[in-house]
Description:
Elements: H1 2-28, E1 36-39, H2 41-46, E2 50-53, E3 55-71, E4 76-79, E5 85-90, E6 97-98, E7 103-108, H3 110-141, H4 147-173, E8 185-189, E9 194-199, E10 206-207, E11 220-223, E12 227-235, E13 247-252, E14 260-267, E15 277-285, E16 296-312, E17 317-319, E18 322-332, E19 335-346, E20 355-360, E21 367-371, H5 373-379
Antiparallel strand pairs: 1-19, 2-21, 3-12, 3-16, 4-11, 5-7, 5-10, 6-9, 7-8, 9-11, 12-15, 13-14, 13-16, 14-15, 16-20, 17-18, 18-19, 19-20
Amino acid sequence: xxxxxxxxxxxxxxxxxxxxxxxxxxxxxxxxxxxxxxxxxxxxxxxxxxxxxxxxxxxxxxxxxxxxxxxxxxxxxxxxxxxxxxxxxxxxxxxxxxxxxxxxxxxxxxxxxxxxxxxxxxxxxxxxxxxxxxxxxxxxxxxxxxxxxxxxxxxxxxxxxxxxxxxxxxxxxxxxxxxxxxxxxxxxxxxxxxxxxxxxxxxxxxxxxxxxxxxxxxxxxxxxxxxxxxxxxxxxxxxxxxxxxxxxxxxxxxxxxxxxxxxxxxxxxxxxxxxxxxxxxxxxxxxxxxxxxxxxxxxxxxxxxxxxxxxxxxxxxxxxxxxxxxxxxxxxxxxxxxxxxxxxxxxxxxxxxxxxxxxxxxxxxxxxxxxxxxxxxxxx
Length: 380
């Protein structure tokens, strides 16, 4: 009987002691605070988590504005017809490179015939009036006529000379020739070396001349786009910050991801009365002709270089309306602690910028998770 009592007493003691042991082990195991992730060193290496220290970097304050690509106005020519007439032939094709003075098209125009006719008539009148003036001078020398007659003859001669000069100037303006032969053919010539960028005529159509009093149509655009302008608009509040020489980064929709470096080479002295903006201009080399006139562009003008505390852009996570990062608290023998902290950032750069300015939340020297932050966020 005694033997069974002893065994029962020992079994009860064991059962009562077991919960006490489990409670003791749970009490000794550390609890992970909210917003923290604890990993072993092996887990950190397996997850390829990398950290970078928050440190000072050089940044530029940036003014971002819209703009457009345009021709360099010294490297483009808009060709109009000075005369009204009908297109008979077209000598230049789209994309063709032409030299200055090369024929672009030929027109038949009565304006040319009229100009040549007026020149020939004015020349004949001038010769006749000159002969009369010389004759009257000889008669006055022999006292065979009066001074009044001579003066009248001289006046007629001067008028005829003025009319001849006017007719010649008109013929020169219309490129009608010297009047030695009468023709109604007019050749449109290229005013510069360049490529035929646009053509707005076809054989047989009637065109209105610039001097006909109507609305003349641009017939050809000849130019070179190996160097182009980019024009942007700067608001009145930012004008004082932008100067000639300010660095500019330019992007266009047609070249996604490509950033074109340039600088401001002109700032307008007047504002547009409608938009209250001032124009700025950048010159860009365009050897590959990737930039086309009238393309829309985005300009980022650097106006103030400064040093600021920054963290890797890859470290920043967005949670709703907030930005957070993971910082490494310690790296002890028991593992590595990472804590999620909210941060305020000043992000005026582009997605390609590796660093972003941090205003609050991280101190200089703190180690920030630059790679693997998304994985840590999933562990919370």
